[in-house]
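Reviewer 2 asked us to include a model.

Predict the structure of this chain.
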Amino acid sequence: MINGKRVLAITLARGGSSKIKKKNIIPICGKPLLHYTIDEVVKSKYIDRYFISTDDDEIINSSLEYGIDFFKRSKEFASDTAKSSDALIEVVNYVREPYYHYIVEIMCTNPLKTVEDIDGCIEKLDATGSDSVVSVCRVWDHHPSRLKYIENDRLCDFYPEILESRRQNLFPPAYVRNGSIYAMTRESLLNTRCRIGKDVRPYIMPEERSINIDEPIDLIVAEQILNANKRI
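Predicted model (structure tokens):
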């Protein structure tokens, strides 16, 4: 609870994955990927209740090892094409009482986020009175002015580029959603059926905590960072 408002946290962890089999519970440095997120969520000083939403029995058992509530997701919202917002709403409609003012999706594909990041998103949502907060990180080499498309075998600008400029001088600074945390008001989620509302604010995370496990190479990078952190 924060300033009298209840907080419901949800991690969507379906069993299917097209690029990495059983991605959400694949071991990284000897620990299932999902457990890195659980370890941080349980430290939160604001989250009142936490659910793992999944269609997979192995993930359910992995959640039960921690004593975490699970929600058995319907097949309708467990496909490759299902929207995350619909899967969140399914849980919110299930947990009708007590009333939860804030809904936080804490994605398990980033094992490097911390409880400070989670609570920071909740604090910003509450302090700003916005309807959504999204974690982002700054992009450098992939700044929009450096991105191109090809037309008639010619490179064309998406966004005007100042040639020969250094990446640190590219303006305005650009940010990308880093696949870690979406915090939103219950009202915004249910009314828009989207995780991002009209008034969306950024929570900026450093690049070194923004790895998102999507491709097999991401597993290697995450393990290298986690091992390096252990040595510090």
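Residues 145 and 171 are 9 Å apart (CA to CA). The domain at 7-137+176-225 is CATH 3.90.550.10 (Spore Coat Polysaccharide Biosynthesis Protein SpsA; Chain A). We have added this to the supplementary material.
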